[in-house]
Amino acid sequence: MMWFSLWKQVKKKIRRNRRPLWTLGGFAIMLAIAAAPQPACAETDLYETPSIGSYLQDRNAPVQVKLHRIYVCGEETEPLGLMKPETIIQLLRQHPEWSASLEEDGRTVRVMQQIDDLSSECKSNAYFGMDRNGNFSLFNGEPSNEKVMRTFFQLDVRFMESSLPQDQLDQLSQGIRVSDIDEYNSVLSTYSDYAMETEDAASQKHSY
């Protein structure tokens, strides 16, 4: 997903700015770095903070545990009940991509799992659209309800209006329903072509 998104940005900048070909070499290096596999987490990185490991190792009695699922869109929390400290440690070792933290009460362990999907709530109610300030955003319900869950980038409205057919512009105004991760990624990738350049990007362009 990251590699595809970066390539979309490269195509957009080439189309808009007609930069010299030598700049493609720099982008190619960036893409190669982004696509390179990341090293696996060491066993000492099982916990978000060292205090969690110490807390679990020093405990003898079971502790309350919550599983916090963090989706691309949305979050869900499920109570797992009382678990022995050694069981929690074993669970985290089996899932090195997970992390854990101690809640404010000092007695409950929250285990966090990143999931490359939409939560059930988002699958039922998520819409992409444009807010009143021209930002490409994700809404809980139709954009007319103005319940923004996440804002991604400022849209280049003039460029978009000159490039897209009217029915696609109308669809964006009314809201684009997404019910799975593939639709989510596809819509986000498509409209990233019409993201307004940041001041940093513009200054770099003029410095060449």
What does this structure look like?
This protein is α+β, with helices and mostly antiparallel strands and 208 residues long. The chain is 43% helix and 26% strand. It has nine helices and eight strands. It has helices at residues 2-17, 22-35, 50-58, 85-94, 120-125, 157-163, 166-174, 181-191, 199-206, and strands at residues 63-73, 75-83, 99-102, 108-118, 126-130, 135-140, 148-154, 176-177. Strand 6 (135-140) and strand 7 form a beta hairpin.
SSE blueprint and pairings:
Layout: H1 2-17, H2 22-35, H3 50-58, E1 63-73, E2 75-83, H4 85-94, E3 99-102, E4 108-118, H5 120-125, E5 126-130, E6 135-140, E7 148-154, H6 157-163, H7 166-174, E8 176-177, H8 181-191, H9 199-206
- Low-confidence parts: 1-7, 13-50, 199-208
Distance between the ends: 29 Å
Mean pLDDT rating: 78
Main beta-sheet strand count, sense and barrel state: 4 strands, mixed
Specify the number of helices.
9
Structural class: alpha+beta
State the order of secondary-structure elements, H for helix, E for strand. HHHEEHEEHEEEHHEHH
Q: Approximately how much beta-strand content do the residues carry?
A: 25-35%
Helix content: 40-55%
- Overall, the morphology is elongated
Q: Strand order across the biggest sheet?
A: 2-1-4-3
How large is the radius of gyration? Answer: 22 Å
Number of strands: 8
